[in-house]
Design a protein that fits this description.
Largest sheet of chain A: none
Structural class of chain B: alpha/beta
Helix content of chain B: 10-25%
Strand content of chain B: 25-35%
Number of helices of chain B: 8
Radius of gyration of chain A: 19 Å
Number of strands of chain A: 0
Order of helices and strands of chain A: HHHHHHHHH
Distance between the termini of chain A: 20 Å
Strand content of chain A: under 5%
Largest sheet of chain B: 7 strands, mixed
Distance between the termini of chain B: 70 Å
Number of helices of chain A: 9
Largest interface: A-B, 35 and 36 residues
Strand order of the largest sheet of chain B: 8-7-4-5-19-20-17
Number of domains of chain B: 4
Oligomer: heterodimer
Shape of chain B: globular
Shape of chain A: globular
Chain lengths: 228, 434
């Protein structure tokens, strides 16, 4: 933990809380002079999950590079990917625990069962771990560009193609299940694609694990990492 | 052989049975109103079961009972009929299921709205002339007098099951008859029919038909239960600020690398405990439109209540007088409701928040405060749209109807698991005369 960049960590926590609390407050409404409210109680949990997903896929990649102290990252720079992702994944865990009171409140509002709740939270955690394992490497900043392209394709383009296909009478609505945001909306047991969140959580979890396990094997054999 | 026969006969006598089924109103009924039935159940001492009555109204009424010993038990069980040819079925249930069913015999005499129904004590001196004579009010409305046992009247009136009846003629020695709420709603209790009956029947007693389009106006058009929403917003705001303060303060301390995550987790744990202890977990609410009737017999509150919110509703408990009312006949049969009558109080099973069912309850109030004009924040008298008070126009003897502050409405005796708010949307004061 002493390797954490404290100001950056502080900013991360505050941004996380700001986004999750803000999403719920703005969605529920009644706080503004004109009392806008975009969601009813049944959509409160989904609103929180979508906000969490947005954070771990869009905001988190920008926090990651400088979340650890420079001297800590330098020590593992030549060690290649997989040097300190466990600390970053731990931060994902801290953020999930920090958001737990909000998750329980929104779960009560939306009357979500325990299984559905866990499925949705696992999806967020698994995607967060995958993004961490994918981007926590020395070439992370270059990789980020391709990451966002892939993120847009998976999150927005696939559902859009599915929608267009539906308008043309082709039954490709299942493409929407590729998007984590669409999959998150299917967490209820009676949803048409209720299998999607669980499958995605498993898939991203396995991919994250694979990246973490494979990382040491991709380090240069004769790297000067051992010498401080 | 004789001994065997005696044993068989004894066994037959011991088995529970529906011995008698009759109406309190001699077969007279009104569409949508309670029809009080009297059921005699025989069985062995200690037998516990329930009787239930059903007809074409879309809901069943059940009453549990116990035979303590010393002979059969007589039970009052009301049912609602809609059509003239409605079949009324009463079932006796034991621990193992339905034991016996019985249909009410004889055609029902369905009265129209103008006709008055009067129950007459057979021991009254003028009983014979009343039941044989064709009586009519000055306006031409027919008065139908039928024989009825006064021993049934108090209980039926206390349950609200006498709403189809406009008057009762009791003999002088029937001082135990109270029927206070029924009289406050316009029912006439007379002992001298020639002197009092016609005047007292000028207006019909208040009735609450189970199909009434007027209740369709009592709708809840909100997504959020106000208390739930306020609690949620407060929780989120306090948590957000508390979290900010905790991590910001620890961020500048020595050892912040450890302190910041630990304080974040600590605040989270604190608010998890706060959620468990203080946050209202239920998702049900009751919204009520109420008329407070300032009757000379006793003040009563007529409440039309809607269950709303989310999630399943278990058994909803009400008070002594209850009537489920629907805007249309289709709504009435959409969901199979069961009304249970136990210890003189009603409860409902099978309803859900958001249903079109409106529960009309009548409660006697201990006292009512003097009427205060309802004014807004600027001191101007609040008015109401004419349609808002339509439901209370059915009350006879009324002098005026005025809106009053909903905050001064009487509490509705409703209990259901998960109920977090019970609020009056509108309250009216109805002043009635003698």
């Amino acid at each position: 933990m002493s390797r954490l960049n404290v100001p950056r960590t502080l900013a991360l926590y505050l941004a996380w809380m700001g986004l999750t609390c803000g999403a719920l407050l703005a969605g529920i409404g009644g706080m503004l002079p004109f009392g806008l409210g975009a969601i009813g109680p049944d959509a409160a949990f989904l609103g929180l999950v979508e906000a969490e997903l947005f954070f771990v896929t869009v905001v988190w990649p920008f926090f990651m590079p400088r979340l650890l102290l420079p001297q800590a990252t330098a020590a593992v720079r030549t060690a290649g990917p997989g040097g300190e992702p466990h600390l970053l994944i731990l931060q994902i865990g801290v953020m999930m625990v920090v958001a737990l009171p909000l998750a329980l409140v929104s779960r009560n509002l939306s009357e979500i069962g325990a299984g559905e709740f866990l499925r949705a939270q696992l999806l967020v955690g698994a995607i967060g771990c995958f993004v961490t394992a994918l981007l926590d490497r020395p070439a992370g900043s270059r990789l980020r560009t391709w990451y966002f392209l892939g993120f847009f394709t998976v999150s927005a383009l696939f559902p859009f193609v599915g929608f267009l296909a539906g308008e043309w009478g082709k039954g490709l609505g299942i493409l929407a299940a590729v998007s984590p945001f669409w999959a998150a909306a299917q967490f209820r047991s009676e949803a048409a694609l209720s299998w999607a969140p669980g499958v995605q959580a498993a898939l991203f979890g396995v991919l994250a694990l694979a990246l973490l396990v494979a990382a040491p094997f991709r380090r240069p054999v004769d790297s000067p990492a051992a010498s401080p | 052989m004789t001994a065997l026969l005696l044993i068989v006969l004894a066994a037959l006598q011991e088995s529970p049975d529906l011995l008698e089924l009759r109406t309190v109103t001699d077969g007279c009924a009104r569409s949508g109103c309670w029809l009080p039935l009297k059921v005699r159940v025989g069985g062995p001492a200690g037998f516990e079961g329930e009787i239930s009555a059903s007809s074409d109204s879309g809901f069943r009424v059940t009453r549990p009972f116990r035979i303590h010993g010393g002979g059969p038990v007589d039970l009052l069980l009301p049912v609602v009929v809609l059509a003239k040819d409605a079949k009324v079925e009463v079932a006796l249930r034991g621990p193992s299921g339905v034991i016996k069913t019985r249909m009410l015999t004889g055609p029902l005499k369905l009265l129209d709205d103008r006709e008055r129904l009067v129950l007459v004590d057979p021991r009254h001196p003028e009983y014979e002339s009343l039941v044989r004579q064709e009586l009519a009010l000055p306006g031409g409305a027919r008065v139908r007098c039928v024989a009825s046992d006064p021993a049934d009247w108090n209980e039926a009136a206390d349950l609200g099951a006498l709403e189809a009846v406009d008057g009762v003629v009791a003999s002088e020695d029937r001082s135990e008859l109270t029927m206070t709420v029924w009289r406050a709603l316009g029912g006439a209790l007379v002992t001298q029919p020639r002197r009092d009956l016609v005047d007292r029947l000028a207006e019909p007693a208040a009735r609450f038909p189970s199909v009434d389009p007027v209740v369709g106006r009592f709708a809840v058009n909100e997504n959020w239960i106000p208390r739930k929403r306020d609690s949620t917003l407060l929780f989120i705001v306090i948590y957000g600020f508390g979290f900010f303060v905790a991590v910001y303060v620890t961020g500048s301390r020595k050892g912040a690398a450890w302190l910041v995550p630990v304080s974040a987790l600590g605040v989270s744990a604190l608010f998890l405990a706060a959620f468990a202890a203080f946050y209202p977990k239920g998702n049900l609410a009751i919204r009520t439109w109420q008329g407070i009737v300032d009757a000379p017999e006793a003040p009563v509150a007529i409440s039309i209540s809607a269950l709303w919110g989310g999630g399943p509703a278990g058994e909803v408990e009400f008070g002594r007088i209850l009537k489920p009312v629907h805007p249309t006949a289709l709504d009435a049969v959409r969901r199979p409701l069961e009304l249970r009558l136990a210890d003189g109080r009603w409860s409902v099973r099978g309803t859900a928040p958001g249903d079109p069912t409106r529960f009309v309850t009548v409660e006697r109030l201990p006292a009512v405060d003097p009427f205060k004009v309802w004014v807004d924040a600027e001191g101007k008298t609040r008015t109401f749209r004419p349609g808002e008070s339509d439901y209370f126009l059915r009350l006879p003897r009324k002098n005026w109807i005025r809106p009053q502050d909903p905050g001064s409405a009487a509490a509705v005796p409703v209990k259901v698991a998960g109920l977090i708010e019970s609020r009056a949307e509108r309250a009216f004061r109805v002043a009635v005369g003698q």
